[in-house]
Structures are given as C-alpha cells and as structure tokens.
C-alpha cells in the first residue's frame, strides 16, 4: 500500500497513478464499500461520504490495532506489574510519543491525552482561567470559532469577571489581522483561536497570530481539530503555547483527544480533575500531584483509543499530509467551480487559503431539505449550523450544507455531489 498511496499528489494529465493511489487508499476503509437505502433484492446507491469534517471514517489499520489490543494484551496502564499491563502501558505511552512526533513537539511530556479536543480546550480554559484571569481581563477569540472554543471561555470569563473580545472576518471568511492586532491589549491574558474553520475551511496564519501575541507576552491556544487533518502541523514552527486536536476527525476513534502544551505552561497549571494516576501521594491532610502530563490525566485513560490514534497517525503519515492536502485541494477546486456554476448556489467562505471544506446554500431550498435529498442519492453531507452559530450569523444564514473532502474521496464523489445537487434543485423548481 505504501508506494501506491504515496502517489496521491497531483500527477500529469492522463497519468492514472493518482487515481490508482486514491483507489488503494479508499480500499483501506471498509465502510466505503457499502450502499445506503437498500431494499430487499434492490441495493441502494453506493455511499459517497462527504462528512469527514464532522467525523472521518476509519481505515482497517485502526480497526485492527484496537481489536488486536482488546484480544491480545488489554489491561489497565501504569498500575500493574504483570505482562498485560506492561504491554498496554508501552502501547499507551508509545501513542503519546507518536503524537509528539506527529506535531513536532519537543517532548512526549508536553502531550496530554484527553477524551476529545473539547476536553483539551476546557482543560486549559479552566486551569489557566483559575490561575491567571481576574476581573477586567480579556480573552481574544475569533468569530470563526467552533462552540467548543467559545463556551469554555465564556464559562471561565463569567466565573472570573473577564470578557471575550472577538476578531471578525471579511466576506471571504478571511480573519481581519489588523483588528486582531488592535484587540491585543494590556488586559489580554490569552488568545484562543481556530487554526482552520470547520465551516468555511479558512486556514488561519498561525505563525503570525502567535508572533503578534507573543510580542505582548500573551500565550496562544489553537483549536487544531480541522487543521491537523488537512495539513502538516509543526507546533514549534508556529510557536503555539497550546494546541488541541481530536482523534475522530484524524481517521482515529472517538473519545480521544490531544493537548499539546509548552512545558513551561503545563508546569504552571494546576490539575484539571482529581482521581487515580495523577497523584504522587494522598492523605486526608493533603495531596501531592504528579508533574505534567500525568497531572492532567485523572482516572483510567482512553487506552484503546490512544492505540487506535497511533495507528491512524501511522496511516496518514504513510500517505503524507502534503500529498493528502494536494489531492484534497484538487477535489475542492473542482467541486467549488462546479457548484458556483449552478444558479442560486452561494458558497460561504472563499478565502484563498482554505482546507477541503465547502459550505453552501441554494436559493429557495432549506439546507435540511437539500441534505435529505442528497442522502437519498447516497451522498452524505452535513447540514445545520455546524456548532458555529456566531459565524453563520455573521454571514446572515441560519444553516448551510457542508461537504468536506478527505483522502479517500475521488473525482466520482465530486461528480455524484454535483449531480445530486442539480437533481435536488430541479426537484424543487
């Protein structure tokens, strides 16, 4: 598989190597072989899965890794001296080291394994907020945030008497860097911002965001849930203080997330939760806590999920994120151009630097109605507010249809999407 899927990057016209490579990668995902809306003796249309921004499908390598752990050596970690516990611990800590390499983190000790990106952001909001926020302080976010990078900061701001300052975007979905720089003030304590919008696909200039903040001594947290799927992420190059991502969008299992934190920041933060495995000693007089990252991993961690995420990262690295990005951008360009040729279609977000995510509306057709008709044609898309209600309000729409592309999508998938949209528009005309 390795040599075939590595060829996903753009190839000359007429060269079939890219199509073969995509087919090889696609064959690694068992679910993509199914059909939907089957009837007795009459299979329905084959599945076109364009909802990877919500949750990506899983390759066989991830499935095998998790089943192999469950059937071969599963036990709790860090607490046993027997063989199974030692093997599970090695696998779990191996996943931490693999994640560190994936993000180019200086050390595995800067990787906290969480249950989701949402928990990772909540961890920083709660611990940083209790330690460094006071009445009148400010937290800078953007209008493009997922609710998971808004609500935790609202909760801690309400608790501490701080307030949120919001960076706007223009009509293309491009972040307004001039306003961002002006919002960074003497009371700004942290910037919490998406690296890639889950609605428009806009990629934020992360290194510039940190440069401007660090010039004023302000730390930056990035929500990398979408970015880490579509492009190489180097936390040292962008100089992130904190970086959160989730496993289930990265072709891994659910219930697994990651928080990267610079060592100097993690050492300054108090525990997020209390429980087993994050303590050095406990008495009724008081508790002594372990250092990072164990301090932030109370209770039995997501062992199997970490093993699955390790396998997912290995799978993605076999293809190469740069090659995946080139493949996805080719599909994005083709789909965007074809959608814009359909009368009444409005694409939400046309930033020059964006990941393979398209949100759109059609005049006179509610996105939920359009989504249901696409589903009947076998095309799975997302409809609604995408947990980003403030951004949709900014664009003046109540909901959109969102098609998101992944490494396993191909030209036929784009064609099926466009065909289904045209058919739906004709149905409603």
Overview features:
429 residues; 7-stranded mixed sheet; 16 helices; 15% strand; alpha/beta; 4-stranded antiparallel sheet
Question: Can you give me a brief rundown of this structure?
Answer:
This protein has 429 residues and is α/β, with parallel strands linked by helices.
- Any idea what the CATH superfamily of the largest domain is called? Type I PLP-dependent aspartate aminotransferase-like (Major domain)
Class from secondary-structure proportions: alpha/beta
> Which percent range describes the beta-strand content?
15-25%
Please tell me the total number of domains. Answer: 2
Number of strands: 15
**Could you say what the CATH architecture of the largest domain is?**
3-Layer(aba) Sandwich
Q: Report the C-alpha radius of gyration, rounded.
A: 22 Å
**N/C terminus separation:** 46 Å
- Could you estimate the helical fraction of the residues in percent? 40-55%
Mean pLDDT rating: 95
Describe the protein's architecture and organization:
The structure is a single chain. This protein is an alpha/beta fold and 429 residues long. It folds into 2 domains: 2-50 and 320-428, Aspartate Aminotransferase, domain 1 (Alpha-Beta Complex); 62-317, Aspartate Aminotransferase, domain 2 (3-Layer(aba) Sandwich), CATH 3.40.640.10. 41% of the residues lie in helices and 15% in strands. The protein contains 16 helices and 15 strands. It has helices at 2-5, 17-26, 60-72, 83-103, 117-132, 151-160, 177-183, 206-214, 227-230, 235-238, 263-266, 303-319, 321-340, 367-376, 389-395, 411-428, and strands at 48-49, 111-114, 138-142, 163-167, 188-194, 220-223, 242-246, 257-261, 279-283, 286-289, 345-348, 357-362, 379-380, 382-384, 400-404. A 7-stranded mixed β-sheet has the order 2-8-7-6-5-3-4, sandwiched between helices. Strand 5 (188-194), helix 8 (206-214) and strand 6 form a beta-alpha-beta unit. Helix 3 runs antiparallel to helix 12 (303-319), helix 5 packs parallel to helix 6 (151-160) and helix 13 packs parallel to helix 16. The protein is globular, with a radius of gyration of 22 Å. The termini are far apart.
């Amino acid at each position: 598989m390795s040599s075939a899927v590595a060829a996903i990057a753009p190839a000359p016209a007429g060269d079939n190597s890219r199509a073969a490579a995509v087919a090889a990668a696609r064959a690694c995902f068992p679910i993509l072989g199914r059909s939907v809306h089957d009837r007795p003796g009459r299979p329905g249309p084959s599945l076109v899965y364009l909802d990877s921004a919500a949750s990506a499908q899983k390759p066989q390598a991830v499935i095998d890794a998790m089943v192999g752990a469950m059937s071969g050596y599963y036990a709790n970690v860090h607490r046993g001296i027997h063989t199974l516990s030692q093997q599970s611990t090695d696998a779990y800590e191996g996943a931490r080291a693999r994640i560190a390499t994936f993000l180019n983190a200086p050390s595995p000790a800067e990787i906290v394994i969480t249950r989701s990106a949402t928990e990772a952001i909540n961890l920083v909001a709660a611990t940083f907020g209790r330690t460094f926020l006071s009445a009148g302080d400010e937290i800078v976010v953007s209008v493009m945030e997922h609710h998971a990078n808004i609500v935790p900061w609202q909760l801690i701001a309400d608790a501490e008497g701080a307030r949120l300052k919001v960076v706007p975007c223009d009509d293309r979905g491009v972040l307004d860097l001039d306003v961002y720089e002006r919002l960074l003030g003497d009371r700004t304590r942290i910037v919490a911002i998406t690296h890639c919008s889950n609605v428009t696909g806009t990629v934020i200039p992360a290194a510039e965001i940190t440069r401007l903040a660090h010039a004023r001594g302000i730390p930056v947290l990035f929500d990398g849930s979408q970015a880490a799927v579509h492009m190489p992420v180097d936390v040292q190059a962008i100089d992130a203080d904190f970086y959160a991502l989730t496993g289930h969008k990265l072709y891994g299992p659910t219930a697994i997330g990651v928080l990267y934190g610079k060592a100097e920041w993690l050492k300054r933060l108090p525990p997020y939760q209390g429980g087993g495995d994050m303590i050095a000693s406990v008495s009724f007089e008081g508790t002594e806590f372990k250092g990072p990252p164990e301090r932030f991993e109370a209770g039995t961690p997501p062992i199997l999920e970490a093993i699955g995420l390790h396998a997912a990262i290995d799978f993605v690295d076999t293809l190469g994120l740069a090659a995946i990005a080139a493949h996805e951008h080719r599909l994005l360009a083709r789909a965007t151009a074809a959608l814009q040729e359909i009368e009444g279609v409005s694409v939400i977000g046309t930033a020059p630097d964006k990941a393979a995510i398209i949100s759109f509306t059609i005049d006179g057709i509610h996105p939920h109605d359009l989504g249901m008709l696409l589903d009947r044609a076998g095309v799975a898309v997302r409809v609604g507010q995408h947990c980003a209600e403030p951004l949709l309000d900014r664009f003046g729409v109540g909901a959109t249809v969102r098609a998101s592309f992944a490494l396993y999508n191909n030209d036929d998938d784009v064609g099926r999407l466009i065909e289904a949209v045209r058919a739906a528009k004709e149905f409603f005309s």
